[in-house]
Amino acid sequence: MAVAGRLALSGLLTVAVLGAGGALRSSPAASVQRLVSVLWFLGVAGTGWVAWVLADDALGLRDVDRALLVAGCVALAGGTVHLLRHRALSQVAALAGTVGVALALLDRPALDLEPAWWGLTLLAVGGAWAVLGDGGWLRPRSVAETAGASLALAGTQVGAFGEARVALLGLGVVVAAALVWAAMTRDGTHLLAVGALGLFVVVPQLVFELFGDAIGAPATLLVVGLLLVVLAVGLGRVRREVGRDD
Amino acid sequence: MTTDREDGRRVSSLVLAGVLVVAVVAAVLLFGVERAPDLPDLADVDGPTPPARIAWTEHDGGETCLHLASPDGTVTEPWCGEPGGDLLGWEGDGAVLLQLWEVEPTVRAVDVETGASTTRPADSGEGTALHHPEEPVQPARGDGELLVEHGGVEVWRTDAPASYEIVTTVASPDGTWVALVDNAERLLVVEADGGSRPRVWAHGVPPQVPVWEG
Fold first, then answer.
1. Residue of A65, A131, A137, A168 to mutate, interface with B, max B Cβ within 10 Å
2. Residue B186 neighbours by CB under 8 Å, 6+ apart
3. What DSSP string describes B99-138?
4. Inter-chain touch B35–A111, beta carbons under 8 Å
5. The whole model's pTM is what?
6. Phi and psi, residue B183, nearest 5°
7. How many CB atoms within 10 Å of residue A114?
8. What is the DSSP string of A142-190?
9. Residue A217 contacts by C-beta under 8 Å, 6 or more apart in sequence?
């Protein structure tokens, strides 16, 4: 299919989906509102598709430029949709676009960055997103906090693939523990869930990294098992505290 | 209507988010981004020039583009098209041969002066690369320095970050020059006796083995 044809097809489909969402937007039915969210989410994805066709086929941009253009368009479209209606899907789309822009910018330097810098960038974007959600800038607040916290923890995992593995894993433990603490001090069951998952994922890795060679695999497994039991008991108590506050 | 406490929380969250982002951006720019050694372009600096042209290919999907760098520093793109293929070498009449990605062994000969190309079944001898094999041009690292040697002679020594690498090397047919492709996508060229500093012959060169004419 010629470039013009691909551009027209992707553009028409995107406009159709966005238009359908716009036409249904004023309906009072909750199910229709959910449909509008899905349609506009697809519309944001379609914007990325149009940008891809434009960047790749029409303009012939290099990989790094193409990625930045597509991510930027998705971020812009997602942000616009989220400004019009503060729903979970539109927020997720805006976050995806923002992460895409950040990663595309990190990919621009000629020499590859260490994984730690990729991880710290994801941590910063996720952390900022969660904080903005807590401050009421992004709604629904629980979606912003959950998505942002999850992204921040994922960032520490990504960064842990490099030479600064122990430092990033330690940072992951700190972030997860902070989420658990935040869940205790305010009504944050969703924060507890993310923090608990983070602790269960990161702590065993850190223990293996610190003690694996010194005490051998079986002893390390024993330490990890005991720590997980302690974590489970502790988090269970925290859950009861949070449940009382809810 | 929001209360003062809620307004304060909104402002503080905005400030905190901004500080977090700015801090990481600054850290990445100051400590994370590393630069390849700064080298002049061949076309911009007077001095000895390579003895021959050099060709390389760039693939995007099924399409291949043939690139050519000349001793005067100019870079041209004589041919782009499908089906693509791998660079084999030069023919005596100034044509570049590509081994096409087809089921039947097929070769495309591209006239680099006109861009015209013809295809033909590959002879048995054309099934393997005709380009000059990578000769012992050996990059090595030590103490934060990059060292490139050719035949036991130091060709280039420079300070370079650990993430900087020489991806491929190839000496000219007469052995007097060495072409290097680094992971900053630059084609560098330097005299094999180490008599001069490397210069950038072309930018945006993928990690493909280039082929000298001759």
1. A131
2. B36, B39, B200, B202, B203, B205
3. EESSSS-EEEEEETTT--EEEEEPPGGGSS--SPPPPSEE
4. yes
5. 0.81
6. -85, 10
7. 18
8. HHHHHHHHHHHHHHHHHHTTSTTHHHHHHHHHHHHHHHHHHHHHTT-HH
9. none
Average of pLDDT values for B168-190? Answer: 91
Q: Which of B147, B146, B151 shows the shortest CA–CA distance to B134? A: B151
CB nearest to A136's CB, from B6, B27, B33: B6
Which of B12, B13, B146 is most worth mutating to test chain A (most A CB atoms within 10 A of its CB)?
Answer: B13
Query: What is the predicted ipTM?
Result: 0.82
Query: Of A190 and B137, which is predicted with more confidence?
Result: A190
Q: What is the mean pLDDT of residues A104-114?
A: 89
Number of CB pairs < 8 Å for A and B? 73
Preceding peptide of B83 cis, ω within 30°: yes
Q: Which two tokens stand for residue A175?
A: 């972030």
| Residue percentage of chain A with pLDDT more than 90 | 65
| Residue B17 forms contact with A (CB below 8 Å) | yes
pLDDT of residue B134: 55
A132 versus A228: the higher-pLDDT residue is A132
Query: What pLDDT is recorded for position A138?
Result: 93
**Residues A203 and A210 sit within 8 Å (Cβ to Cβ):** no
Reported residue count of chain A is 246
Residue A228 or A139, more confident: A139
Q: How is residue A101 written in tokens? A: 């822009």
Report d(CA B196, CA A196) in Å as an integer: 60
Q: Report the SS3 class of residue A24.
A: helix
- Residue pair B190/B40 in contact by the 8 Å Cβ criterion: no
